[in-house]
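lol forgot to send this yesterday, sorry. struct tokens for the thing we talked abt
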């Protein structure tokens, strides 16, 4: 563990929970292995399917497997979200969105005091509507209130289900026809970027929030190309930061959820598994851990 910075991770866990309900845990075990390899100080997840059942048994399993404390934010859709943190981190508070006020999956927030940081941080987890540009715009408008600079700095991790301003236009021909309009501006055939534009702001000299990937010059896809059916590759898994944290951003990475051959951890730069000496090696056998790539950032302590 670094004594000068903190690694934060966000990951959409795909259908691992659904598979576990059916008695299959290979993908879940692959997810646990990847988290263990990187040991994030704070881990934020979505698609915790089934985590509310049997007194939250899957969620308690996750806390034990990760060796972390956590808060579960149940969604009326069943697509639950969670924030986990290492035991030496102080939990200062939790804010939940009532189901009756959630448009789709909803969101949740925890405030944490990380050792070595002079102020607490707020960690907001969100997962926007996968079907409707209109729904996503409404949800992003409701998230904007958390960017209040009078409150502790914000770390927003989200599956935005839309691409940020400035990212390349995805190849929508790869998206099934009946799902294509879920992602496009009306009658224009171009990606809907308005929800994230409304969270980031239009003035680069006075941003509302800062896109960590864009700031680090990495706009590589986090979704698409990993699991069938084929879909347009695009960056929809994001860390957005209060401007006061932008100067603390030391690193941004997308990780490879494909299995690595035995004995090839830790990872090389760029997220590919590394053989001894740091040489990247091709994926091995086993399930792809998710259809989304995990995203990590590293924040310097101050």
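and heres what i got for the seq, position by position
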């Amino acid at each position: 563990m670094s004594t000068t910075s903190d690694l934060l991770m966000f990951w959409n866990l795909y259908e691992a929970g659904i598979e576990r309900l059916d008695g299959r845990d290979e993908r879940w075990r692959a997810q646990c292995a990847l988290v263990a390899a990187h040991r994030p100080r704070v881990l934020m997840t979505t698609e915790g399917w089934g985590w509310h059942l049997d007194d939250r048994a899957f969620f308690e399993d996750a806390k034990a497997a990760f060796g972390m404390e956590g808060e579960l934010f149940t969604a009326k859709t069943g697509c639950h979200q969670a924030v986990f943190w290492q035991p030496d981190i102080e939990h200062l508070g939790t804010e939940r969105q009532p189901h009756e006020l959630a448009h789709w999956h909803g969101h949740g927030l925890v405030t944490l005091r990380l050792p070595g940081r002079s102020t607490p941080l707020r960690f907001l987890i969100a997962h926007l509507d996968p079907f409707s540009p209109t729904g996503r715009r409404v949800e992003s408008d409701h998230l904007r209130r958390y960017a209040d600079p009078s409150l502790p700095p914000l770390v927003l991790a989200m599956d935005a289900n839309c691409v940020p301003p400035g990212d390349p236009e995805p190849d929508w021909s790869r998206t099934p026809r009946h799902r294509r309009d879920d992602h496009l501006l009306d009658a224009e055939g171009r990606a809907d970027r308005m929800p994230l534009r409304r969270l980031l702001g239009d003035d680069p000299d006075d941003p509302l929030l800062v896109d960590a990937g864009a700031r680090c010059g990495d706009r590589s896809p986090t979704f698409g190309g990993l699991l069938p059916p084929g879909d347009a590759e695009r960056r929809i898994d994001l860390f957005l930061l209060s401007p006061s944290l932008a100067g603390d951003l030391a690193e941004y990475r997308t990780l490879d959820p494909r299995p690595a051959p035995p004995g090839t951890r830790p990872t090389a730069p760029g997220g590919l598994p590394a053989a001894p000496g740091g040489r990247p090696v091709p994926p091995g056998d086993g399930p792809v851990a998710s259809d989304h790539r995990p995203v990590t950032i590293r924040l310097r302590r101050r």
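Confidence is low (pLDDT under 50) at residues 266-283. anyway ping me if u want another try
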